[in-house]
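Q: Hi! Curious about what DNA 5'-3' helicase looks like structurally. Here's the sequence.
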Amino acid sequence: MPEPLHLEYEERAILGHALNFEVKQPEFFEGATDDLFFTDGNRRILRAMVRLNGRGASIDLTAVQTELIQSDELSSAGGATYISDLTTGTVRTYDVRQHLETLRAMAAKRALAASLERALARVYGNETADDVIASIEHDVAEVQSGCGVEVLSLKDLIQPELDAIARERQTKKAVLGIPTGIASLDEVTTGWRSEFSLVGAYPGRGKTSFIVQAARAAAQAGFPVLILSLEMRKGELLRRLMSLESRLRPRKFREPREMNTSEFNHVVECAGALAELPIYVCDQDSLNPRQITATARLWIRKAGVKIVFVDFIQIVSETGRDARDVMNKVSAALRSLSKSAGIPVVAASQLSRANSRNLNERPTLFHLKETGNLEQDAHNVFLLHRPVDDRQDFTGADEIIIAKQRHGVTGPINVFYNSERLIFEERSTA
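A: Let's find out. The predicted structure is below.
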């Protein structure tokens, strides 16, 4: 049997130093957490010290023993003799931060071991290999994110941020962020940033077209793209991209017998150019948030993915008390992915009509209310509006409504949805 994953001497020593030397306590409480300690007794001692610290009380051997007596935990914590022995042999030169890092590294090993044990149980259970892999990826990411809580002073933060601002001032790029594929939208937003953005629309109003167009624009600008296509199969998605690249009507990809030889040869030529774009596609059914996160992290590592598109959010598979609870879990996972990975995550969302009889009802943030916390979790919300006339034909006075923008203005952007090419184009108001 392998040795237990814990460092008994280190745990005892660091508790003893915090008890013996008041000057060491700020560093100790800054980094000490329950999971760093393997034994239940040591965790109880830590919690007693944390309670005392929270009350602003002096922390020493007597105070901790008294606290444990009052909570009826002295025996469970090892007894008075054990706690007294912790303070023996401590020296003031002990580096608390360094030894906390040592304990943190061992805690990470324990977490990984527990994850692998759970994964092995799942392998022999009813879960698929993909589900097991996704759970391992998720657990590894959790361990990585929990290996240290970094707190920096403004003094540490200011110079790197000033350097970033200076670089952005001097850049020759047309768009500071990742291009959306629509110049007027880029002008107002500066492109996709490392945020969670929603693209909402009523059914049949161009959500998927927007996602495909934006993904192609990002890839053409040199940014590797991951598309999680929960609605459309990869073959359909590829034909959409071929249509955009070749500028042939999507109808001809739906019915290739309408292509003449010249057009087909042109498609073959365009397909070669399309193959060079860094676009990665997953069309697996019923992905859950954990699988989405794991897949994204995998391709960030493998291919340097810089932006993730999800089409569309209501199809993400998750369990919950009700539909709102499910959406809350999904949106929280996507927002967390964007923040932790430092990349834009863009998800399409279907809107619900407050008045189903009015086909020209202008979409607002209100139409996201029924979908849980999507509105508040998203940093940016873009709503696609395509009005119709009395004959229910589209008027062409289409808009992308910036309903929410974390660091910018809101309002409509005038566009035209070209139904022949399934693409949003600029529209002049003149």
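A: A fun detail: The longest strand covers residues 398-405.
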